Amino acid sequence: MSFFLAVDAGGTKTDYLLADGTRVLARVQTGTIKRMRTNASTAVDNLDSALSQLSASTGISMSQVTCTCIGTAGESVPLVAEWLRESFHDRVTGELVLLGDVEIALDAAFPGAPGIVVIAGTGSNVAGRTASGQLTGAGGWGPALADQGSGHKIGVEALRALFLARDEGRSTLLLPAVLSFWELTSWDQIVDYANRLPAPDFSRLTAPVLDCANQGDAVAMAVLQREGEDLAYLARLVMRRLLLEAKDSSWVPSLAFAGSIMEKVAPVREALIAAVQREFPTVVTVDGVVDPIIGALWRARSGR
Is 90 exceeded by the pLDDT of residue 189? Predict the structure, then answer.
């Protein structure tokens, strides 16, 4: 019997899935094993813990694995790629397939087929695959350069909108929400806290921003809608590229979603879909969010 290992190595956590040809046998999660985000010792501890848990719960040794597929951002960075290849080679038998995180997300939604996936969590990215199998994307350049519609961008833009509302003399629920969330008591403390080094995790403000929007706060809602529309702009760029190659002029690529923002922050997702549909009214959107590790499993089973 053949066994397959799928890994989704993110910046803060890593998911692992062990399966045979038809069934998922076990799934575990540890901290990151991505060397750009942690030191070698911690990455080794996390990896060893995961592989031990998988073997203990299934009775399957890592020496029985036929193929492993790892999806991660930064797969072309030598520090990341070389560490992953060496570490898995020392611990797991069989073939190793190393891909970008956007590619396994695409495979989770459209196994080997064309389509577009919008990924938005702490960061964001839009990726598409043409009918000939070529990958194309937009965004994904990190928080300083892009990350439209991401948790980080929502947090930063909400703070900017809060202070603009103050300058305009407008009230907003964002003020008490931010003060409470950060356990602060004044405008000056927000300024100091937001500008400190190292910077706070602005993505964590997404929850209070969403709560304010759900209570009808116009400032908070405008932030979420604007971020959804900015992310839609990237999706439309990728969609136009796929359509340039399409042989069927009536075909429009389907749109799938991944990440916590796409799953939990409905105003961003709804604004994104509405903005895409204004240009591509026949676009089909996939319900829910895809689980990228399922794409990694499909790749491991395919051996490619």
Answer: yes
Tokens of residue 163, six digits: 């202070």
pTM for this model (two decimals): 0.89
How large is the greatest C-alpha to C-alpha distance in the chain, in angstroms?
69
Cβ contact 262:109 at 8 Å: no
Rg (CA), the chain: 21
DSSP string, 64-93: GEEEEEEEETTTTSHHHHHHHHHHHHHH--
Q: Which amino acid is at 197?
A: L
Helices marked H in 216-291 = 218-245, 260-264, 266-279
Structure tokens at 152: 């980080």
Adjacent-strand bridge partners of 255: 116, 285
Q: What is the DSSP letter of 182?
A: T
Provide the token pair at 106: 């695409």
Helices (H) and strands (E) in the chain, counts: 11, 9
Q: 125-162 pLDDT, tens per residue?
A: 999 999 889 999 999 888 899 999 999 999 999 999 99
pLDDT in tens, 90-130: 999 999 999 988 999 999 999 999 999 999 988 899 999 99
Q: What is the C-alpha to C-alpha distance for residues 230 and 223, in angstroms, rounded to an integer? A: 11
